[in-house]
Design a protein that fits this description.
single chain, 130 residues, alpha+beta, Jelly Rolls, 39% helix
């Protein structure tokens, strides 16, 4: 992943250049087809997903709770604190996602804890505004 490309992703745009370079090493790109279930409510969470392109639907207990699109993210609680998914997310279109695994976050926690603090702050800010 190119650190410059992360500048255009809202979640990472507020990070310092150094932090973006740290994350760029660990972030992967994933393409999925329409209808693909990305996460299932109740499953254990190991990945953070950031939508670069496409749309998804979020349901909880079978009820529609949100629509997600480019710039939105999900799975952050599982990556930062471990736990179970509190919703199901399904692709409503073909999608391009950026992913960061819990294991990579643990590596970052050891090598660059300040970078994770920056991400946690960005997630908090996005959650409050979005």
């Amino acid at each position: 992943m190119d650190a410059e490309r992360l500048k255009s992703v809202p979640l990472f745009s507020t990070l310092s250049d150094d932090a973006r370079r740290e994350f760029a090493v660990w972030i992967n790109e994933m393409k999925v087809s329409k209808g693909k279930q990305l996460v299932e409510e109740g499953d254990y969470a190991y990945d953070l997903f950031v939508i670069e392109d496409g749309d998804a639907e979020v349901t909880r207990d079978g009820d529609h709770v949100a629509d997600l699109g480019p710039g939105d993210f999900f799975g952050e609680m599982g990556v930062l604190s471990k736990g179970q998914r509190n919703a199901t997310v399904v692709a409503r279109s073909d999608m391009r996602l950026l992913t960061l695994s819990h294991w990579d976050v643990e590596r970052l926690r050891k090598s660059a804890p300040d970078v994770l603090d920056q991400l946690g702050q960005a997630i908090e800010e996005r959650g409050e505004s979005g």
